[in-house]
Amino acid sequence: MKDNLLTPTSTSSSNGRMIIAISLTLFAFLIELYNGNTRILNLNNTILHKTFTASTTLLSFPSLTTITILLTLTLLLTLLLHIHRLQQTVSKSSIPGLPATPHAQFLIGHYGQMVHPSSHQTLFRSSATPSGITSLWGPGLKVCASVLKAEHVRLVLRHTPSRDFSSFVVRHGRKTLGKDSLVLIEGGKEWRRTRNVVQQAFTIGAIEGGRGAVGECAVAMVGWLMKMVNGEEQQRHCANGCNGHKCVQDKETGKDRNVVCLDVEYFFKLFSLDVFGRVTMDYDFECLKKATSIDNNDNHHNSRNKKTCTCFTSPPEAAAFEYLERDIGVRASPLGLLNPLIQYYWWPTKHNREYHANLKLVNTLMEGVIGLKLDEFLSRVRQRQLETKQKQKRGGEDDEEEEHNMITMMLRSVMEQYYQQPKEQQKKQQQNQNNTSSSSSSCPFSSSSTTSFQESDNIDNIIPTTTMTKSDRTQIIHNVSHILHTLLVAGYETTAISLSYTMYCLSKHPRCQDRACEEARRVLPTLNDNTKFDEDALPYCKAVIMETLRVHTPVIFTTRVSSKDLTLDADDDGGMVTIPKDTRFIIHPTMVHLDERNFDRAEEFLPERWVRWENGGWVDRDFEKEKKLAAGAASDKAATAAADPTTPTPPPPSPLSDKYTKENAHADTISAANPQSFFAFSDGARNCIGRRLAIMEMTIFVAVLFRDMCVDLAEEGYELVKERRFVILAPNTLPIAFWKRDE
């Protein structure tokens, strides 16, 4: 007679049942222990007794069921033990000698807190040692550390240019930006080679040559705002119920003012893209001219601002650039990694179709512009080669014309690298020829054939202007396109967000608007085709930008991987801690800037920490000089008056500042900022190449804007809320009101 599968089997071993019952009991024991229930150490515990009884009953079923349950429980037990060991590991400090940072997860460490801006205060400051060092765990139990003290940050950033990227970020970033994208190369020779190519284009002459283009873009943007304020552009831009233009009453004067309200981030993105095109590509995107319609279904705008602010529909080029920039973050995000439909680009999904369409638009535009500039460059090179030959025949000297256009310098640098032989090959050829010459009487001029192109006096001699192959041309265009796309991704959104934060800070500090206006009207008395724009002549406007970047740095954090052990001071009592090799350092610029060890009154917005009023104008402050004067001021009252940060500097003799005399006096007592403690553009070999261009662009715009206009928050009770966009920290929405300043 066959046994019923639901009845106990008479052949079941009582010993086997007992072993499995004990295993189940042990499993329950470990679960309770893992959950912190130490009372289970008492063998008479009710939970253990019930588990043992249930296990014995369960084991009365056939052996197949018993084996399946046993295997399942064994796997669960093994997994639980492994999780328990991992949790015990991350509950300790990742670096010996440092306190443990709480709330680490067994699988991702502190990554969950790193990606949430609301947790940064607790993670990077509250858990730090007295010297600002925090031990952290990264995903996969990677050893990480954070430093806040400026001396430590400089040491880390200047110690090594190596970075540690997620393989998913590199994969998706290179798909869009190209395999040679500068920001995605972790380090080594490849990074130095690419960095050198880009750096040769960002010469001082090339950047200064773009001042006129930046000024023209700024004047055009502010002119458009003035027309909006005057109502000239209202019908064209405020359709479909958008109430961006309105008349309000000034609380101080009681006068009616025409005001235009904007969600400023997207307005500044149009400005940033226009500047990028004019300066780096010698191409006009004409974003402002094309952004002339309103789309109330635009997903980029917060719905509560639709009735408050004028909203823009971005032109196709700007929309494509922004889509591709955010696509990298979407695909490399934790949620994106779980979605195979966006991990593979060949899936016929809506997301992938939009991606390929935007990528094609960007590549077609950039490669078309670069192709035209390449043809113009080759034409000029051929012309110079002909002129050189003619001068040589006449016995004249070659006076090569200097090129200050940025895209021309970039083309020159890329072609120089493309047509040059690697140094290693050149050395081998030189060694081979030297060996040959030692055994035979060769021509004394034979070594000239292996001269490095880098030692050539004129790059025109190595460019095949008439014999360039189609494949060479395509590769050069692709290389330059990838560089430009990388620069755009790195600077387009960050510049727009920085200007947005500037509007927010100045809206909260009207006295700073007045001081910027005073300087702008003095330096820029008129705005016309003959106006010379120079950010160095606008120190207060530049100080406004520096202070905004200090308080609201757009980049959340940057990383470095140490190539050797680093010894840092852990406290003020002489204690030291050694950070081991291969530790991943996470530098949070905003947390560093808001640390009182690095800046006095760090939480306050004070542009005066960067400049001081002297001889009828604003001048840059010299931190080291003031520090030395303050140290020796005890015996010199005159030096004390000039250097003591507690002594107010005379306010500018202008009626614009009289309304805020007390506020100005309070601001003027701040001590000088140390530029070595400022890391908004990183530091060391991997600092931001476009730093000078970004500061120039924003400084000139602030001067042109506040010369004739004022700003304020467009909503009463507005509170700044920041959101994370991949590696950028941006305002969720920022409604700003603009109006014309009284003469």
In short:
The chain has 743 residues and is α+β, with helices and mostly antiparallel strands. The strands form five sheets. Strands 1-2-8-5 form a four-stranded mixed beta sheet.
Provide a descriptive summary of the structure in words.
- The relative contact order is 0.12.
- Residues 1-12, 36-44, 234-243, 293-307 and 436-457 have low confidence and may be disordered.
- Helix 7 runs antiparallel to helix 14 (316-332), helix 18 crosses helix 20 and helix 21 (510-523) packs antiparallel against helix 22 (539-551).
- With 743 residues, this protein is of the alpha+beta class.
- The termini are far apart.
- A 4-stranded mixed beta sheet has the order 1-2-8-5.
- The chain is globular and about 95 Å long.
- Helix content is 50%, strand content 9%.
- The longest helix has 45 residues, at 350-394.
- A hairpin with a 2-residue loop joins strand 12 (722-725) and strand 13 (728-731).
Count of DSSP helices? 27
Oligomer: single chain
In what range is the share of β-strand residues?
5-15%
Cα Rg: 33 Å
